[in-house]
Specification:
953 residues, alpha+beta, 5 domains, 7-stranded mixed β-sheet, 5-stranded antiparallel β-sheet, DUF927, DUF927 domain-containing protein
């Protein structure tokens, strides 16, 4: 049967969460139920959009999505393709993996009823095309396939489907990648329709003459249990998990006086047969409702468990839900005057229609995303929105005709926004700049307070026009306050993970069937930093591929991909600092990492206030934070920034009233560059790098050791400088795709658990393989971060996002990890390593100038006659092995050599490492004669020559 959702009132439809099963091959076997059958499709913003956005539907969520039929002033708009694409491919047959729906596109010559009749018994959705009229029908049938068809098999399958359709199908649908507009109709056209037919899913086995295909490509054949029909379903777009339609029955019972009365135990015994049947017909449309129906019936005089079960199945397959009118005619008097209303204000025709309340938020989100506002409309009695702009209606006297005074170019208010706690309210705006580019901005409503200069300046910068003068400015603010659309959206104020979705300033990935999420900011210009240019394929060819074989470049890209994993794995913030001389390619590495998410405008600088860096870190939540030129930062501020970024917490502040403001939280991985290390910078400010700072910002030698700067392989370029410039230029032309491709997959709730477990395993393997025996916990922590970066790269290699061979990311991260260990001075405790390094550094800097050389003659030390020492710190002499030993005076040792450290701790480490000669009684200060002391023995710290030797671990 064919049901038109405009005229029939209660539209039969496949039962929600209908069970799909594959028949057992043994004769007479009962089919095994396989709930939650999923179909994959690809979505597109419009006909010019080359990038498929993968989405997963159940048949039910697909139908409720496509039952929406908004009015549009033009044909081009949201589109879809009934296929899944291979990872990383753009639109086109070359990237098609599987086809999940057969689409019959009819442009005339047949009526909808005639074509649908050919598919009697099969589930399908029919909807009119944009150009459809009653006189010239143009429509589509969408048939869910019981099992997806591989792209190579599609031409054969298409031919048989077309034959079943009486060859009415448009030949262009043979193109597997064919794009279809979602249902829409011209403004003012009332001939449109969207309808659903109940039945089983179309299987290859249902198509004649395909035996050879089935044998060569064994597909899993499914058929559907003919489900009940959901009345008056309201629209919802879903790419997440199945909706729980038990909740739908709960909403019905909560709102329907009849369902409450009929199911109450005290009323069941006296309930008349017709009303009992009415209760069952309205409940059985919901899957898994049997338990509730039995509990609502077991006190009835005619109740029998087996017979009632049979009755449920019979009603589910053959009987439409009894209407409210019929229930009242059968004697029920408890219905409210005027009937029960659905969320859109319509009166429901059957109790089951009240399940629409389950979709109240989703409906408004879908309508906001899909519906086209009319060309002209009024806001109250004060404003009118036209294609030419927003006008305020004013009049000098009460009896005068209102005059329309232009306030600005057209700015539509499409939704009101607020966060999960119903705070941070905003107004979602849509406007078009003079070049015809449509802009969307979720404007925080707090910007409307006061003079409002900030929001007007932002609108002007982004292409809106605003009339000059105080009255126009006040009128614009009044318009934005007066506009109160029904649509709502959840506002988030920073990128990254939010309620299962990954939010970027211009896109949202994944998430369940919840309210639409929008990015809300008081700085709309920041959105431009997360730009896209080129395609994933061009980025792979011009950026990723040339980086292969270059550890620092490969690691930079992997560092760019890794931040979204922090939240999923519960890993800490951290950073990587590329240290090296100028002009060796450090800034190129930052460009490579940034290209994962956007252009080079994503690169920020260390030369900023702590508050400024806090704001930047918030805007890079769950995304790479590239920071250039560490040497430009103040040493003290850099140390504080390293702690802040590592902890992921901003500064506590008080508001105007003295109350504490909410502390900003952020998750980042930092990729930094500079000629100085964090230690050098802080030492210049009289500070000491502590273990926490060292672990938070690990240092990597930018020079890869091949006389090619940061590179090891320049792939035939004339020089490393030329190669660097080529990569840097390519990053400005190809960017913003790899990160989106990765989070698009990570946000898939089906794939996410297995991806996370795989990443965990890869991290542990990296740690187990590359952490030397006896290493401290600090080294292990840093190894985990390198392992996280390596895992991100290897997963993206497997997913086809990175065009490298397996192991490329691990090898690059291993080399960078080994560089960090070498710079650190070993794998021992940081404080111990730091103590030895500081003593060695003092001797390196002052070994000739502040240590007096002497020799011992006949047991008495004598000066080197050529030596004059200013600000003497001690003495130096040749030991028995002809190597130089250093005797440091106690005051210089405590105040200068151990500056910033505990001298007792430094002494303890030197003793443990065998670098300090003790007195006969074991005391660390050795008594010895020095030049000028005569026979008096002076206490000194006697350092062995080994202090200047190999790294001490």
């Amino acid at each position: 049967m064919y049901f038109n959702n405009k005229n029939d009132g209660v539209t039969p439809q496949l039962a929600k969460n209908s069970s799909i099963f594959a028949p057992d091959v043994s004769a007479g076997a009962e089919p095994k139920i396989e709930p939650g059958h999923k179909f994959k499709v690809s979505r597109f913003n419009n006909s010019k959009d080359p990038t498929p956005k993968p989405a997963t539907h159940t048949w039910d969520s697909f139908c409720t999505d496509f039952l929406l039929h908004p009015a549009r002033s033009h044909k081009d708009g949201p589109a879809w393709s009934p296929v899944s694409y291979l990872i990383g491919h753009t639109r086109g047959n070359a990237g098609v993996d599987e086809i999940h729906f057969a689409v019959i596109d009819v442009d005339g010559g047949s009526t909808p009823e005639a074509v649908i009749e050919r598919f009697a018994g099969f589930a399908c959705l029919a909807h009119s095309s944009f150009s459809h009229t009653a006189a010239k029908p143009k429509f589509r049938l969408v048939l869910p396939l019981a099992a997806p068809v591989k792209a190579v098999d599609w031409p054969t399958v298409w031919a048989r489907v077309n034959a079943m359709a009486g060859n009415a199908n448009d030949p262009t649908t043979k193109d597997a990648s064919r794009l279809y507009y979602k249902p829409a109709h011209p403004v003012g056209n009332s001939d449109h329709f969207s309808s659903v037919q109940v039945g089983r899913f179309l299987s290859v086995a249902d198509l004649p003459e395909l035996a050879a295909l089935v044998q060569s490509h064994p597909l899993t054949f499914h058929r559907s249990v003919t489900g009940g029909r959901l009345p008056e379903i309201e629209g919802i777009e879903s790419s997440g998990p199945d909706l729980n339609y038990k909740q739908g029955l709960r909403h019905v019972v909560e709102r329907c006086k009849f369902m409450q009365f009929a199911s109450a135990p005290e009323n069941q015994a006296d309930l008349k047969e017709p009303l009992w049947s009415a209760m069952i017909t309205n409940a059985c449309v919901f899957s898994e409702s049997e338990e509730w129906i039995h509990a609502a019936s077991d006190q009835h005089d005619g109740y029998d468990e087996t017979e009632t079960g049979n009755r449920i199945e019979r009603f589910r397959n053959t009987t439409r839900p009894h209407t409210c009118q019929r229930i009242q005619e059968q004697g029920f008097e408890g219905c409210p005057s005027g009937g029960c209303h659905r969320p859109n204000g319509d009166v429901t025709k059957a109790p089951a229609g009240l399940m629409g309340w389950m979709f109240k938020h989703q409906l408004s989100a879908a309508q906001t995303a899909m519906a086209q506002l009319p060309d002209e409309y009024e806001i109250g009695n004060s404003f009118v929105v036209k294609p030419s702009g927003v006008y305020q209606l004013t009049k000098k006297a009460d009896d005068d005709e209102p005059v329309a005074v232009r306030l600005c170019s057209r700015i539509d208010v499409t939704a009101l926004t607020r966060d999960k706690e119903s705070n941070n309210w905003g107004t979602e705006l849509r406007f078009t700049d003079p070049d015809g580019v449509t802009k969307n901005w979720a404007l925080p409503r707090e910007l409307l307070a006061g003079a409002g200069e900030a929001y007007r300046a932002a609108l002007l910068r982004n292409g809106a026009t605003i009339e000059p003068g105080k009255k126009a400015h006040e009128g614009l603010a009044a318009y934005l306050v007066a506009a109160k659309p029904e649509a709502r959206a959840t506002a988030v104020t920073q990128p990254g993970w939010s309620n299962g979705s990954f939010v970027l300033p211009d896109a949202v990935f994944g998430g369940g069937p919840e309210e639409r999420v929008v990015f809300q900011t008081d700085k709309p210009d920041e959105i431009k930093r997360f730009s896209k240019k080129g395609t994933l394929e061009t980025w792979q060819a011009h950026i990723a591929k040339p980086c292969q074989g270059n550890s620092r470049a490969v690691a930079s890209i992997c560092i760019g991909l890794a931040p979204p994993l922090l939240h999923l794995l519960g890993e800490d913030n951290g950073g990587f600092h590329l240290r090296g001389s100028s002009s060796i390619g450090k800034s190129v590495c930052l460009s490579l990492g940034s290209s994962v998410w956007g252009g080079t405008s994503l690169i920020r600088t260390w030369h900023a206030t702590l508050s400024g860096l806090e704001g930047v870190a918030t805007m890079h939540n769950d995304i790479l934070l590239p920071l250039d030129e560490l040497g430009q930062a103040d040493g003290k501020a850099a140390g504080e920034a390293a702690y802040m970024l590592g902890n992921g917490l901003g500064k506590s502040r008080a508001g105007r009233s003295g109350d504490a403001k909410a502390v900003k939280h952020f998750r980042n991985l930092v990729l930094s560059s500079g000629e100085k290390s964090m230690g050098d910078l802080m030492a210049g400010a009289g500070m000491q790098v502590m273990a926490g700072q060292e672990v938070r910002m690990v240092e990597i030698a930018a020079d890869a050791g091949r006389s090619l700067g940061v590179f090891e392989n320049i792939h035939g370029a004339k020089s490393s400088q030329v190669f660097a410039e080529e990569l840097k230029g390519a990053a400005t032309q190809h960017h913003g795709h790899a990160g989106r491709a990765f989070v698009g997959i990570l946000a898939d709730l089906e794939l996410q658990p297995q991806l996370v477990e795989k990443v965990r395993a890869l991290i542990q393997t990296f740690v187990d393989t590359h952490v030397p025996e006896g290493a401290t916990g600090q080294v292990g922590r840093v190894a985990r971060r390198f392992g996280l970066v390596a895992a991100a790269g290897e997963i993206c290699i497997e997913l086809g996002i990175l065009p490298w061979p397996e192991g490329e990311a691990v090898d690059a991260c291993r080399k960078c990890f080994e560089s960090w260990i070498e710079i650190r001075g070993g794998v021992g405790n940081h404080e111990a390593t730091q103590a030895i390094a500081q003593v060695r550094r003092f001797i390196e800097l002052h070994g000739e100038s502040r240590f007096t050389s002497f020799v011992e003659l006949l047991g008495n030390p004598e000066y080197d006659a050529t030596n004059k020492t200013i600000q003497r710190a001690g003495f130096r002499r040749l030991g028995e092995d002809e190597r130089t030993e250093y005797l440091i005076l106690p005051e210089a040792y405590a105040s200068e050599v151990c500056r910033g450290l505990n001298p007792t701790f430094v002494t303890k480490i030197l003793l443990e490492k065998g670098l300090l000669l003790t007195d006969r009684d074991g005391k660390p200060q050795r008594q010895t004669r020095i030049p000028g002391s005569g026979k008096v023995r002076v206490r000194v710290y006697h350092l062995k020559a080994d202090i200047m030797g190999e790294a001490v671990t």
